[in-house]
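Progress against Task 2.4 (sequence-to-structure conversion) is shown through the following example record, which the project officer requested during the mid-term review.
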Amino acid sequence: MAHPAFTARFQSDLKRPGLRLPLTADAKLFAEAAALGREVVWLHCYGERFADRAAGRPKGPPRMSKLGPAIPAAGAIPPPPEPLPEEMTYDPVKRRLHFGKGYVENVTPEMWAFEVSGKHVLHQWFSYRRRDRSRPVIGDRRPPSPLEKIQPDGWLHEYTTDLLDLLHVLGRLIALEPAQADLLERICAGSLISSEKLAKAGLLESEASEAEAEAEGDEA
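Structure tokens generated for the chain above:
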């Protein structure tokens, strides 16, 4: 479910709240999906869960096999007393992600454009580490706390580590997308287990039970 092909295929269905998953009746496809899912969770958790060295998932922050994001000596982001950078830009020709006076090489356009639930991941990450972290007050939202002004005097070494970890994870997630799309296509083309069968087996609440639970909640 965590890939663009799923969103594209079920775009009209996703307008309604709730997640709906095509569940294959083919044991081999199920095992393949579970293995791919473990890889995705391993990436999302930065190697803390589902670590398995034999399966190519060592414990710790994942890394791309080759040509992964890196900061050369010339691209090192200056530490204090240089102030925190204010802008983040991307050069698609050189494939460089620029932060103030520093930059990261081998950043693909797909990494730069990566989104989760409509939010640009790199922009979100940088917005909490830039010099000016203020956001416009919209509607009745409370004004920002003065505590938000408390921040480091300059770029921290931990920020560089976090950034590289994030970029490597994004790179590996993007590399999995074709396999995820192919697997989804094969699952949807094969035999599926319906929600009715799961409910009859006692593995899933029936729609009637859900409706009754909602009605009881409304009465309460």
